[in-house]
Structures are given as structure tokens and as C-alpha cells.
Design goal:
Blueprint (H helix, E strand, L loop, with lengths): L1 E2 L7 E2 L3 E4 L6 H4 E5 L5 E2 L12 H4 L3 E2 L5 E2 L5 E4 L8 H13 L13 H4 L2 H9 L15 H11 L1 E6 L8 H11 L8 E3 L10 E4 L11 E5 L12 E2 L2 H9 L2
Parallel strand pairs: 8-9, 8-11, 9-10, 11-12, 12-13
Antiparallel strand pairs: 1-2, 2-5, 3-4, 6-7
Helix pairs in contact: 6-8
Bound molecules: magnesium ion.
């Protein structure tokens, strides 16, 4: 909350976190955030019920001019590589073929592949992630089913830092249309910095994307993030389903 203006006794609500009191674990209680309310408290015009996020309590409200606004559903942003798509599996496959190696994901605890391999191989390992890399990636187990379930209840956006590999746009888009045809193109976001994402949840394997994120982060387990302890972790899509089943 903040004062309406200097010397003004009334308060303006600018952001609300909503917690579900039925749950005892505070970390699981968070069910939504709304930053767009502009109700004034202290003038007797609104009750606290009036300023609750409509995406959570699910009824319509009217603007002062009488215009009825539709409630916004809870918005979930989902990363692609190593969350939906098995990018690491493909990277290991290409590396092992090129160097006659037998690396597995279990060898990479706390490290990316480029950080684990000999320095002499690093540049070649990075170059393996080209446009063709993304076209045939396997979908991680249960991802399609759970994302479809979420899309039926919530507003789901796919958010990929595709600018990391600019030539990947076309292959990534076609991969999403092939495996997730129920996600409309208008809900696919290719960007460079995910701090622009305005969502209630972000499911991502890279903790750096959580630094500026205003919603609730869910860290999707991957070998490189094994040592990360700052965020709630989900280790599979069944874990994701369980988190949202509590809402
Ligand atoms: Mg990722």
C-alpha cells in the first residue's frame, strides 16, 4: 500500500498477495498476486473484498465508469529447454558421438555440459547447439499431459530465452506446434531477458531468471541446478501437477 499523495490519510492498494488459509504450509499458501488494483482504503468506498484479485476469487468487477472487467486467470509461464524439451539428452548424444564418449546426465551434477568437458572441447560443444538441435528434441515425461491440464484451468504461456540461440526460433516454434498444439501462438514468448514476464508462476531450470521475477518461482530440477537451494523445486511434471492441485 502507499499514500494516495503527500499529506493524504488514505491509502492506495497497489499490490496484493493472496494466500489460501486452508493450507498450513505458508510456502504453499500463495495462490496469486495482483498488481493492478487501484482501490482506495479509508474513504469508506471499498471493502477489502472489493480489492481482492478477481483472478483468484473469480467474479467480475466494475470500473468507476461502470465498465465490467473480465477476471484474469492465474498465469503460469513455462520455460522450454530442460523443462519441456530434453535439450540435455540431445546435447549429450551429440557430444558422445563426436568424441566417442559415454557421458550421462548423472556425470554433470552442478555443471552444464560445456563446463564439464575438457576445455579443448568446449567451443565445439557449444557449437552443437545449432538450428537443427531443437527440431527433434524429446518431450520430457508427462509434460504434454500436465501442461494440457494446466492450460484448461489457467493461462499458460511458454517463455523461452530463445535469443540465447537466435537461429532456434523457427525450430522451437515448430516443435511447440507439433507437440503442444493446444497452446496458441499468442501465448508463446521468445525473449532475451525473462524479467519482462508478468506471470504469477515461472517454471524454469535456470535460477537466474528468478532474480527479477515478481511471481512465485518453481525450479525444475536439472543436473546443472542440483546445488540450488533458494527456490521451491519440482523434479518432474508429476511434481508440477501436485503443486497446482493444491490451489
Ligand atoms: Mg531451460
Amino acid at each position: 500500500m502507499q499514500r494516495v499523495r503527500q499529506g493524504e490519510q488514505r491509502l492506495q492498494v497497489s499490490e496484493i498477495d493472496i494466500h489460501n488459509g486452508r493450507l498450513s504450509d505458508r510456502g504453499k499458501c500463495f495462490i496469486g498476486r495482483n498488481r493492478n488494483e487501484r482501490a482506495i482504503l479509508g474513504c469508506g468506498r471499498y471493502s477489502m473484498f472489493d480489492v481482492l484479485p478477481q483472478s483468484v476469487i473469480g467474479h467480475h468487477r466494475s470500473d468507476p465508469d461502470g465498465t465490467v472487467q473480465s477476471p484474469r486467470r492465474v498465469r503460469i509461464a513455462i520455460d522450454m529447454d530442460e523443462v519441456m524439451a530434453d535439450a540435455l539428452g540431445e546435447h549429450l548424444r551429440r557430444y558422445n558421438i563426436r568424441y566417442g564418449a559415454s557421458l550421462t546426465a548423472a556425470d554433470l551434477q552442478g555443471l552444464h555440459l560445456e563446463d564439464y568437458v575438457p576445455v579443448a572441447h568446449r567451443e565445439a560443444a557449444e557449437a552443437m547447439i545449432d538450428a537443427s538441435f531443437f527440431a527433434g528434441l524429446a518431450v520430457l515425461p508427462d509434460c504434454q499431459t500436465v501442461v494440457q491440464e494446466l492450460a484448461e484451468r489457467y493461462e499458460v504461456f511458454i517463455v523461452s530465452a530463445a535469443m540465447d540461440v537466435p537461429c532456434s526460433f523457427d525450430a522451437k516454434y515448430r516443435w511447440l506446434r507439433r507437440h503442444f498444439p493446444f497452446i496458441p501462438p499468442t501465448q508463446i514468448v521468445f525473449c532475451g531477458d525473462k524479467s519482462v514476464v508478468d506471470a504469477d508462476y515461472l517454471i524454469d531450470d535456470r535460477a537466474r531468471h528468478f532474480a527479477q521475477f515478481k511471481g512465485r518461482p518453481l525450479l525444475f530440477s536439472a543436473p546443472h541446478n542440483a546445488a540450488e537451494t533458494r527456490y521451491q523445486r519440482v523434479s518432474s511434471w508429476k511434481d508440477v501437477r501436485a503443486v497446482f492441485a493444491d490451489l
